[in-house]
Recover the amino acids of this structure.
C-alpha cells in the first residue's frame, strides 16, 4: 500500500484529525470547585434539540475547520469533506485521521481528491486529539447553559468554536500528543 506522500509526490502532505460532537439542550455538568459536602448550583434542561459540530484540527500548526450540522449521516459527512476541501491549497494533500463511525465509510462518501481518509483502530478515541477539543469546549463554553431552541444550540456551537479559533495557540496546545512528532516528521 502506498503512502499519501508516494501517491502525491508533487504535494505537501498535511496531517489532520477529525471527529464530531453532539451539543444539545440537555447539557452535561463539568467539574468545578465548590464547598465540601454541598452540591454546586447548575442549570438543567429536559429538552432534546441538538446539533453536531463536525471539526477537524491540524495539530502541527493549530489550524482548524468546523461545520455545525443538524445530524450525523453520510450526506452530512460528504458535505463536511467538500467544504473542508475548499480550504486546502492546491499544493497540499490532506490526510484526515478519523474514527470508524458508520457515516465515515469511504465507500459511501464523496471524498474529494485532495483528501485521504485514514481510520483509527476501533475503540481508540484516546488516539484522536480532537477529543481534547471537545472536552475544552464543553468545560469552557457549552456546559451549564440553557439554550432556548435549535437556533440557540447552533449559535452556541459556532460561538464556542470561533472562541477556540481566536485563542492563539490553544488548538495546538490541546492537540499536542507526543506520538504525533514521530508520525508527522
Amino acid at each position: 500500500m502506498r503512502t499519501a506522500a508516494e501517491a502525491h509526490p508533487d504535494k505537501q502532505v498535511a496531517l489532520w484529525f477529525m471527529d464530531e460532537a453532539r451539543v444539545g439542550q440537555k447539557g452535561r455538568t463539568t467539574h468545578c470547585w465548590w464547598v465540601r459536602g454541598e452540591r454546586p448550583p447548575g442549570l438543567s434542561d429536559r429538552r432534546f434539540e441538538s446539533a453536531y459540530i463536525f471539526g477537524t484540527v491540524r495539530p502541527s500548526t493549530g489550524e482548524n475547520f468546523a461545520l455545525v450540522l443538524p445530524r450525523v449521516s453520510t450526506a452530512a459527512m460528504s458535505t463536511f469533506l467538500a467544504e473542508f476541501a475548499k480550504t486546502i491549497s492546491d499544493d497540499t494533500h490532506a490526510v484526515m485521521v478519523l474514527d470508524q463511525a458508520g457515516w465515515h465509510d469511504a465507500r459511501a462518501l464523496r471524498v474529494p481528491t485532495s483528501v485521504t481518509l485514514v481510520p483509527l483502530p476501533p475503540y481508540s478515541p484516546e488516539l484522536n486529539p480532537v477529543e481534547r477539543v471537545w472536552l475544552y469546549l464543553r468545560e469552557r463554553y457549552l456546559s451549564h447553559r440553557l439554550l432556548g431552541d435549535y437556533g440557540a444550540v447552533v449559535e452556541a456551537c459556532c460561538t464556542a468554536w470561533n472562541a477556540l479559533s481566536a485563542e492563539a495557540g490553544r488548538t495546538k496546545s490541546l492537540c499536542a500528543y507526543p506520538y504525533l512528532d514521530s508520525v508527522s516528521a
